[in-house]
Amino acid sequence: VTAAASRKLTDYSDSELIARYLREQNTVYFTVLYRRYANKVFAKCISMLADEGLARDATQDIFIKVMLNLSKFSEQSSFSTWIYSITYNYCIDMIRKKKKMPFVFSEDVSKISKETEVEIPDSVLLEMKKERLEKVLERLPPGDRAILEMKYSDDLPIKDIGDILGKTESAIKMQIMRAKQKSVALYKELYSNDPIDT
Amino acid sequence: MALNNFQQLDDDRGSKLPSDLEMLLVHRAGGFAAVGGIVEHFVPNAVKVAGRMLSGDNALRPDPRGPGAHLSDDTPLWRIPQSGSYGPAAPDISNAPLWRVPPSKNR
Is A32 helix (H, G, I), strand (E, B) or coil? Predict the structure, then answer.
């Protein structure tokens, strides 16, 4: 048994699994990819769509999309960024279609003047209790929610977030700042008597 | 590495992933792979043949002179095909005694 053959499938990198799936068309490689990312994709769908049934259908559609487009994955970005990009854009499209919402972000960043903005430190959001953060996120527009999750949950660089949402880096920075301000305002509305770190 | 509150929320939501979804997707992946295999084997040939026919490749067309016309005079008659849309119709052998039916029809 060669060293390569004795390697566990779970040790394969995303790129290796994709290359093997495309070459051999063996579903076992796709299954490993699915197990690696399905929970994350489903979590993002629940967060964006706020409905487990819709999130289930969306997860299924997203993985079929991924499966059919694997050969187009160019490795210019990591596979995780690519699959999250498909997930966020799928959910944003779905929200736009269902709610007939042309804008899923709180406001058009190009209309906001920089002078009026106050920078809120990351720690303010990161120190919120999980349950309270969830309530705050639920009340944010879906685009703002997505942008905060890309930054704080997926640790995506600003450039990647911009690529995913088709916006410039400065627009993304501004959008993050607005989303943070909105989150703090919502927190104060919901938990006016409690400071954030309790 | 410790998870921050955003990542913990993601984990909580992700744990609700329905277990039947994997089976469903893997089944569909298998179906796509099978269809992909068929397409991979047959489409290139079909495209090649269509391309050759469109470009007027005579090798793919039936001989307008009829079956066996390309054979030389030395070809024994029994090697020339009898029926088809070209040439004389084959004699009806359905009622012929078995010993008269040519071996190829008797198999």
Answer: helix
